[in-house]
Amino acid sequence: MVWRMDAPVDFIEVYDDALDAATCAAIVQRLRDSDRLTAGRIGGGVYPELKRSQDLRISGLPDWADVEAKIQQAVLGGLLRYLRRYPQALVAPLMLQIPDVGGTLRRLRAEDVQGMAEPALVELARTCLRPGAINLQWYSAGEGGYPYWHCELYPRDASAETLHRHVLWTLYLNDGFEEGETEFLFQQRKVKPRTGSLLIAPTAFTHTHRGNRPQGGDKFIATSWILFQSAQALYGG
């Protein structure tokens, strides 16, 4: 089968209403009220000239477990849609096999993923992928932002954890300000924040991006990655 897309694609998807507005507003208020905010970090440390924000990593915090669960559920829904749109995200790198008629194994095809029942696709996604830690970020109007052009893959740690990042995601928790877009360099595309919308895109240099400064109001997001499972989890040994 020759795989065709109806039109050129940039692999950047935005899913509106991934999380309801009331839940987003409640998360924003809890973040505003938190006494555990820290200066926003990038891979190498704190560099406010590259990224200026107040952050809270909520994964592993018992009092934020309810928020983490709601966000992860919203991201899972978007991820399933993304995998049906781009099944090669699983098929191309992993060369998966499934039982065929008679019980023999054959390679998983893109059309298998697209036609898969949701419970089976959830199981496949959880077998191959894992969620990253969620970071809530607060960008103050006129000064906060991540204006440095960057991607999400880099060989920082000995375990190569950062090289396991497969797709990035950003959940916009508010709007009502100007600018503040997520801007992709090579795709020449700016994604405007809308309350409850979920952005998913690849992590590599092909999707170099930046977070523009919000004007006229503060910007709040939740963000992380979907990573491949470790080699040990995928292949044993």
From TrEMBL:
InterPro entries listed in its UniProt record: Pro_4_hyd_alph_FE2OG_OXY
Domain of life: Bacteria
Gene3D superfamilies tied to this protein: q2cbj1_9rhob like domain
Pfam family, one: 2OG-FeII_Oxy_3
The Prolyl 4-hydroxylase alpha subunit Fe(2+) 2OG dioxygenase domain, residue ranges: 139-226
Protein name, per record: 2OG-Fe(II) oxygenase
Organism: Stenotrophomonas panacihumi
The organism's taxonomic lineage, starting at the top: Bacteria, Pseudomonadati, Pseudomonadota, Gammaproteobacteria, Lysobacterales
